[in-house]
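Escalation from tier 1.

The customer reports that the assembly of two entities below gives different structure tokens on two consecutive runs. Tier 1 could not reproduce it. I'm attaching the input and our single run for tier 2 to review.
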Amino acid sequence: MAREIPYIQALGEAVHQEMARDESVIYFGQNLGLTDDDPYVQAFGSDRVRVTPISETAEIGMAVGAAFAGFRPVVQLYMSEFMLVAMDQVVNEAPRFYGMSGGEVTVPLVLQAGYGFTAGWAGQHTGTIYGMFMGVPGLKVAVPSTPADAKGLMTASIRDDNPVVLFHSYLLTLEHGGVPEGEHVVPLGEAATRREGGDVTIVGIGWTVGLALAAAERLAADGVEAEVIDPRTLAPLDLPAILRSVEKTGRLVIVDQATRHASAAAVIAAEVASEGFSALKAPIGLVTALDATIPYSQPMEEYLMPSEERIVAAVQQAVGSSPVAA
Amino acid sequence: MVSPAEVDAALGLELLRGMWRIRAFEERVGQLTRADEVHGLVHLSIGQEAVAVGVCGQLSSRDAVYGNHRAHGHAIAKGAPLAALMAELMGRDGGLCRGLGGSMHLVDVEHGFLGATGVVGGNVPLALGSALASRLAGHDAVAAVFFGDGAAQGGIFVESVNLAALWALPVILVCENNGFAEFTPRSAHSPVERVADVVAPYGLERATVDGNDVDAVRRAFAGFLEAARRGEGPFLLECLTHRLRGHYEGDPQRYREAIAQEEWQRRDPIRRLERRGLDERWLDDDTPARVEQETREEVEEAVRVARESPYPEPALTSELVYA
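Tier 1 run:
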């Protein structure tokens, strides 16, 4: 049964249900399970639910070692930027071992990391940094855009035998949506079509999926039907789903909360230009944050971010350069 | 505490053979590197064999051991088959990691060698994870991790020591303090001479021993191991040793004077154990040369088997991205 719960609660529900289902799932992080009445501690005990010092490198490295032994650690990092202090473990240990060992060891590990809290948190806690991780072979990257996907992708991530960074959007934290109560799995590597349309494809990622859908409604009022694709995972990337849509619409606009240079949007654009060029009737549009550190002041913050208006403008440009058949 | 066994003929020979096996293997790897049969970056541990042997000889395959970039000795002492190890260094399909890992990234799960990592200090927290897993699973396996004195200046080391002490994990940190971090003497890296002093504030049980004395390493480690088997920890064993070769094969070593042959004979852990065995009469005069010869033959056989192993299918690399 689906009922409406917030995105953040859906994530927690997945962790809780998986811990109940599988004793090898352990959960640790900073400021976690501090009291005896913490629901995770109550349900699973303080052996499996552990508070760690502010030592991301040791924390993640320890999780990798426990994963070698068959445990399935979920490391709660809160801010994705905190992973940056542990890049050796995230990039050069966890995802390398399966390949380097010739397939002898696996690392079933989930790093739960919030991103993009552009709500006055300024330069160091607001980054949309999933693009930095999507090019690391062996690492999976999930970016849920709805409460149901938050639960389903977290469940799939915990069950996956590879290290997964699950980037959850801080801007979606309290967004409500229908979420199945029982087991709910969204396979990693399968895009979702959020809206069907024949005139233009809009790819949104995480928070920008909602933005793309809102823009699509405005465009529909002007007679432009947009198809909105949500990749849901950036690694592996469901490129075939994007190409199929572009094959149908001939136009592509990619919306990414990250800064533009070397972004997920840029990678997807390059793949489509390379693999789907013949289907394109117009240049690919990119709507991203501007290439700058996220500023504190609110008007500046808004200026830098992608917006509904920018998506509409990008679509109009794509359509305008080759008018939609009447 | 049960005191560790005295060195008798059986144990002495086992320790001697263990060290010779590493020495003979690595000397051969040095030659094969120069002949380009082993390619890429190779770090040899010649001179440091007593540490690997003194530690790993007491562990079982259920105990997780982690090595660093200089890990051939750790893997061999933990039981990795020489032929598979040599095949790995030659990039062959029959290698420990089917040719995907190479010298710095050896893994042999069957023998509890969970792995070598090439980034200094990167392996330390992994051992904490193995120790935690052992505790959660309720068995008495322990974890041991080898690292050099250069790793002790990294934040990852301090973070790991803090966490291991905080959670009292059954892990034994084994520092091979050879006085050089890559090309630089310890004095240029830290004002703290002994790594055992670096961890002092965390209250770890610790010892600094002569790392070229395999019996001293073995005895100190035995005490820690016994306690770790009961679930205690962490421990730090600092072994003062000497790397006879450069940081890597081909290192011109302009940063230090070559050790005099006479001085090396005095320090060499293999020669020391041989002298002791002869003095204590658990070795007869002919045995050292025989052990050397046998291990060299063992290594030649490993080279032969490795050479016969084919190169892996190149596409294997794409198959082993995701599990």
